[in-house]
Q: What sequence folds into this?
């Protein structure tokens, strides 16, 4: 039987081509119709330090980065030692014999990556040597890689042909090395090209494109891992008449300047990670208080403080819900896939504009850096909402009443004071109890406008259900299906609209005996949020800086379901 | 807005310098309405927190848009508003604590960008709203509620700092000179770039410097404030820095550079190099 799934990990040091090998292998295979996904983790430095990237190729859509390695490509001895235990039985290790030797390791073969590359006259083709060897191991036709090389290096430069030829030579040298080693992994089944047009993008790009589709006007951001690519995307793509993309000097400047721009009538966004998000707390509170629509993206990484800047974690949920002091609660959209990142990018704007306040998009490192093929988003299905604008004369009470009211735009009649202090209808500061009660209720009542979130569910009759959030969706869904196949009576719920939760979903969850929430943090943050809303929720936590592996997650769920069932029998 | 609004109960203390600043600002805005035919709602007044911040609620007459934001962050809010709609006349009103204490970090980047807004700084050398703590412009050794044994920080020299940071319009005036203030405010609003109108606006309650500024012949107090000589060339940065380095409070425009492009001009120039892309074409660039 042919393989339908293939996982390879490239491990070495920053600057060794670890990432380009993985991305190149993914792109090449995506072009012939395989589903691909990459996952990378690296230290926060420009060169050097342990890096690894994983590419998964499949004939089916991919939900997670893969539990076990079919092949480990070790660029140095440290990498071999760190990762060898994750190679599956029958898997193969390719090591760089130009850097170190492995003796007596049966399932391994070495080749001198750099020496082979240099012999083609192109010292930068080491990643092609590796890709050539990989293609042989899984019997993927070399022509696929050759097409990819030709496409990538046809750049209209005089030496294009030379570079293409040296890269193809490097592919061949790698293939010959693999052939001589005598190893095979087993042939990869032919690709089943997905229907419809596909794009190969990561979560950061998908989110940025979503914001573009919503008609973003202003972006201000400060560099921070792993959100920097959103800033770079905007700096590259947002300029134009009436548009403004700018690098700020701090996250405080980012948030307050987008609040200013949104006050002036623009659709404005910033993106950051945990440390920057914390700095934005007061500015987000200002947007809530003054009723100004802005979108704030937090691409989560390990925390607290500087934490683990280049690792994945889902530990900013509580701060996303309550980023500042005082009575306020953020609308939060947490995408769980690259596709959902696009949706979150435009839905967040619709929510912000609709309720006139800040909306938080909670992404994650594992989504931000994940390159994946997804169906090309259909722009005609993007319903981009705009705020209700005041069009009357002067003398308007902008904050009058107990619910949403049209927003005047500077330059037009209707002048008022946008105020971060408690205020009356005109926006003038007040301390009166009645007014604070009215305005507080007004601000919270607007959240009801956002109760149109959708959710997924399966086997809803079960009394024990699984409900991961964010990037744990993929591993969670695979674990769910594995358990369902075993006959475990378990239900499945999922939504990216964490606040406010879709009311019907919350209603259903409240009827369950146990809602298991796999999440990547210590505190069990979403489980505690659900408990505060009357759901019997319990977290399954992991805080390694890495995503859940499907097998491990399934095993923990199986155990917990078993205990629960035993308990209910005893009771 | 106060006359319309009995609910708003904030008051400046009798004799506060900010009353004069308010009158000057009202005059400068109405001058724009009358002489330049700019609708009042085309002006946006952005304030931080402090006695100065209440300016947005206390302005009478033609009603501009206001933004009463958070402490120290008026400049970045102003950047967003201005870059969101460059047709707006954006004016920041701030105190010395708001602008030079918690907000200090925002002056340098706006100077470097030459953001086309006006900042009106009401300097009373003290935190008034929180009742008399020392501020960056409080004298070294001064006894205040937060420096009971004397202030141990040197006093900040705002003008030397503004000039060093590259603020393209630097002016100095005082709250008793309403006509001069409003004239300078108008010039500042007309200036293409980042303009600062720094005003000595004494706090009658915690740091009353009226007499020190104006002098008192009977008491033999010479008076710190003096008019900048008419022959001063305000395009000459070195001459401006000399004035800023002298003792006393100069009154007038120290420095004015109209040659530097504003941030919106810089952005326009950069944008011209960029071919606007449709979302569809961006998506297509990632096609497999």
A:
């Amino acid at each position: 039987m042919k393989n339908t799934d293939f996982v390879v990990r490239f491990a070495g040091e920053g600057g060794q081509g670890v990432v380009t090998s993985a991305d190149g292998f993914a792109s090449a295979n995506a072009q012939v119709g395989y589903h691909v996904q990459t996952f990378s983790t690296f230290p926060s430095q420009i060169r050097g330090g342990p890096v690894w990237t994983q590419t998964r190729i499949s004939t089916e859509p991919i939900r997670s980065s893969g539990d076990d390695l079919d092949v480990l490509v070790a660029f140095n001895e440290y990498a071999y030692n760190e990762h060898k235990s994750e190679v599956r039985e029958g898997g193969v290790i390719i090591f760089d014999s130009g850097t170190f030797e492995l003796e007596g390791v049966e399932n391994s073969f070495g080749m001198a990556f750099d020496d082979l590359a240099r012999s083609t006259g192109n010292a930068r083709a080491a990643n092609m040597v590796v890709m050539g060897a990989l293609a042989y191991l899984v019997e993927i036709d070399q022509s696929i890689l050759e097409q990819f090389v030709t496409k990538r290096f046809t750049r209209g430069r005089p030496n294009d042909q030379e570079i293409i030829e040296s890269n193809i030579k490097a592919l061949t040298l790698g293939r010959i090395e693999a052939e001589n080693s005598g190893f095979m992994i087993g042939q990869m089944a032919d690709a089943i090209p997905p229907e419809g047009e596909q794009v190969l993008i990561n979560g950061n790009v998908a989110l940025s494109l979503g914001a573009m589709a919503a008609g973003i006007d202003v972006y201000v951001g400060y560099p921070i891992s792993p959100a920097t690519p959103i800033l770079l995307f905007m700096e590259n793509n947002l300029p134009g008449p009436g548009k403004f993309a700018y690098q700020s000097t701090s996250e405080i400047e980012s948030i307050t300047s987008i609040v200013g721009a949104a006050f002036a009538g623009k659709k404005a966004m910033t993106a950051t990670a945990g440390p920057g998000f914390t700095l934005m707390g007061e500015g987000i509170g200002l947007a809530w208080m003054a009723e100004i629509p802005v979108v704030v993206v937090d691409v989560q990484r390990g925390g607290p403080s500087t934490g683990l800047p280049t690792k994945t974690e889902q530990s900013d949920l509580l701060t996303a819900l309550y980023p500042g002091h005082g009575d306020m609660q953020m609308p939060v959209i947490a995408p769980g896939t690259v596709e959902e990142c696009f949706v979150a990018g435009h839905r967040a704007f619709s929510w912000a504009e609709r309720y006139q306040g800040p909306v938080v998009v909670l992404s994650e490192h594992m989504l931000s850096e994940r390159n994946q093929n997804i169906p090309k988003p259909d722009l005609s299905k993007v319903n981009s909402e705009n705020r209700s604008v005041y069009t009357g004369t002067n003398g308007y009470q902008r904050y009058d009443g107990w619910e949403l009211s049209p927003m005047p735009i500077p330059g037009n009649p209707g002048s008022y004071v946008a105020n971060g202090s408690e205020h009356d209808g005109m926006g003038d500061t007040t301390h009166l109890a009645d007014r604070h009660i009215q305005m507080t209720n007004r601000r919270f009542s607007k959240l009801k406008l956002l109760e149109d979130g959708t959710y997924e569910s399966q086997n809803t009759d079960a009394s024990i259900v699984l409900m991961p959030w964010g990037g744990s969706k993929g591993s969670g869904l695979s674990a769910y299906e594995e358990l369902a196949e075993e006959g475990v009576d378990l239900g499945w719920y999922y939504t990216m609209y964490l606040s406010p939760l879709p009311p019907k979903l919350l209603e259903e969850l409240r009827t369950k005996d146990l809602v298991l929430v796999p999440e990547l943090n210590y505190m069990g943050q979403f489980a505690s949020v659900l408990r505060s809303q009357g759901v019997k929720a319990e977290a399954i936590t992991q805080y390694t800086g890495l995503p859940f592996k499907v097998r491990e997650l399934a095993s923990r769920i199986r155990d917990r379901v078993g205990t629960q069932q035993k308990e209910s029998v005893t009771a | 807005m106060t006359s319309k609004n009995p609910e708003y109960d904030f008051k400046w203390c009798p004799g506060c310098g900010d009353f004069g600043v308010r009158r000057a600002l009202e005059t400068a805005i109405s001058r724009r309405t009358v002489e330049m035919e700019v609708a009042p709602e085309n002006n946006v007044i952005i304030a931080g927190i402090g006695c100065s911040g209440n300016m947005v609620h206390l302005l009478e007459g033609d009603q501009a848009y206001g933004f009463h934001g958070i402490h120290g962050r008026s400049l970045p809010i102003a950047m967003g508003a201005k870059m969101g709609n460059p047709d707006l006349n954006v004016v920041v009103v701030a105190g010395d604590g708001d602008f030079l204490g918690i907000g200090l970090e925002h002056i340098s980047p706006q100077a470097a960008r030459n953001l086309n807004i006006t900042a009106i700084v009401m300097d009373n050398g003290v935190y008034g709203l929180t009742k008399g703590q020392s501020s960056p412009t409080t004298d070294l050794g001064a006894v205040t509620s937060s420096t009971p044994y004397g202030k141990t920080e040197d006093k900040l020299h705002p003008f030397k700092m503004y000039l060093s940071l590259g603020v393209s319009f630097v002016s100095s005036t005082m709250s008793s000179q309403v006509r001069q203030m409003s004239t300078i405010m108008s010039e500042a609003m007309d200036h293409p770039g980042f303009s600062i109108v720094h005003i000595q606006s004494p706090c009658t309650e915690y740091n009353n410097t009226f007499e020190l500024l104006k002098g008192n012949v009977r008491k033999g107090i010479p008076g710190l404030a003096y008019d900048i000589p008419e022959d001063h060339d305000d395009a000459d940065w070195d001459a401006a820095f000399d004035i800023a380095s002298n003792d006393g409070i100069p009154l007038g425009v120290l420095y004015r550079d109209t040659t530097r492009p504003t941030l919106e001009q810089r952005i326009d120039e950069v944008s011209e190099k960029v071919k606007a892309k449709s979302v569809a074409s961006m998506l297509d660039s990632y096609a497999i």
